[in-house]
Amino acid sequence: MKNLDIVETKYFTFAHPPHRLKLESGQVIGPITIAYETYGRLNETKTNAILILHALSGDAHAAGFHINDSKPGWWNDMIGPDKAFDTDKYFVICSNVIGGCRGSTGPSSINPETGKPYGLTFPVITIRDMVKCQKYLVEYMGIEKLLCVAGGSMGGMQVLAWMTEFPEKVRSAIPIATTLRHSAQQIAFNEVGRQAIISDPNWADGNYYGKKIPANGLALARMVGHITYMSDISMQKKFGRLKNTEFNSEFSIGFEVEKYLHYRGNSFVKRFDANSYIYITRAMDMFDALENVEKRNNLERFKGDVLIIAFKSDWLYPAYQSKEIVKVCKHAGINVSYCEIESTYGHDAFLLETEEQTHLIKNFLKRVYSGIKDERTFDSGGP
Fold first, then answer.
1. Is 347 in the active site?
2. Complete domains list, the chain, with CATH
3. For 119-146, how does the pLDDT look when each residue is reduced to its tens digit (9 = 90+)?
């Protein structure tokens, strides 16, 4: 069976003292609920766990199908029996980040102190805050050390945060189409999206819950973002200058690419919260994997293997940024492999170019997992 069975989203609420989370900013918030899904089975030694980390608009539903929903998880082609993350061998976990809106605590969640949605009273969160919550979830499952952490785009930033925050908790890492820190251009695109939302009359300083939502602003933010996810070649192949005579706008004739962007924007509004978009993009912009000496020293403590993947047509997270990660890993004495995949899909390639990624990741994980078995044999005094 190539596809996973029906899967279910589960919820973990911090259930041990102090019931609250101290954020990187110093603020404290709680209780915290994290939505997550798991695929495959955890082995008896709990050494086969892989944590998948999602991008900006992702969620915990990475693979399989929900009841009464024909749409698979966002990385379904990569997670499952005999796929890149083989659920016949590995126990795969994916959780929705704190600050999100797909089951985990975020701006749209109810503040227990007021009984109303947090809105902009929700504290600023960082990539490292997201990773700290994931660590609590993994510990809740009784897992002392992850076989691997893997993710693309913002997911790749979380991978790097795991390597620099909890280097002793990870055996291997796969950052894909990501960066050590955002460039000015990457920050600029995110700021345009945030301003589109803030400029919407319905945003109401983030207090739009129970009222009209800032749908136009959020849709526009998604439209701008989606342009950056594709490449010039992929847009030309998909749309060219094809016209859409039924385009519903003040112009009599529109283009297919316009229709597509409107569809993407309107679809996004139905599943995502505008405040979460603001909080998460800000967390991405603030992230710097090696911002101080402590982080650099922690990276040197990371003793696992790293596989870095980039895509030639990705102009949002260009390959030179992945090569910078390779360089700092080598300086830290880490065993690192790098592969730059030919693709015309742009940044979206990490979601679409599954065949070559599967080959690379399968072999990488096989080597890492075999190393664990060799360690156990040696420790037990075996041959």
1. yes
2. 10-180+289-379 (3.40.50.1820), 187-281 (1.10.1740.110)
3. 999 999 999 999 999 999 999 999 999 9
